[in-house]
Amino acid sequence: MPIFHMIDGAPDPVAPFSHAVEADGWVFVTGQMPFTGTANDSPYPDGIEAQTQQVMANLQRVLDGCGLSLEHVVSARIFLTHFKEDYERMNAVYAGYFPAGRRPARTCVGVNGLARDARIEIDFIARRS
Predict the structure, then answer these.
(1) Which domain holds residue 106?
(2) How far apart are the C-alpha atoms of 119 and 101, rounded to whole Å?
(3) Do 126 and 26 form a contact (C-beta atoms < 8 A)?
(4) φ and ψ at 27, to 5 degrees?
(5) Can you give the CATH number for the domain in which 44 is found?
(6) 129 pLDDT exceeds 90?
(7) What string of DSSP letters covers 19-55?
(8) Cβ contacts of residue 68 below 8 Å, gap of 6+?
(9) Separation of alpha carbons 56 and 47, rounded Å
(10) Per-residue pLDDT tens for 11-23?
(11) Are strands 20-23 and 105-110 parallel, antiparallel or unpaired?
(12) Nearest 5°: phi and psi at 48?
């Protein structure tokens, strides 16, 4: 049976979903926004670099609540509303979270909108050892 994780200290959901769902050792982490607090109307930091850092912090909070870390991440999906403007700067920040040679598979797409007018959202698939 799946395990539905709601993590204390992670941002409140913006819609009806769990922070993560686990099945057979696979952990599917819901996309996180750059909320600076736990309220889902918390402000976003300025700039794509700071927003990428905040999204990664929020994802790490969810992973930690599941007893996992970034080293368990096998796949990431990144959604950008200002793709051409933000792609390179987001990559510069994102790359610092994973060592070369141990980076998850990844998809990055430009979208025309995200919840709460975020510029970036990232979700993860992790695997429990």
Answers:
(1) 3-127
(2) 28
(3) yes
(4) -120, 120
(5) 3.30.1330.40
(6) no
(7) SEEEETTEEEEEEE---SSSSTTPPPPSSHHHHHHHH
(8) 27, 126, 128
(9) 14
(10) 999 999 999 999 9
(11) unpaired
(12) -65, -30
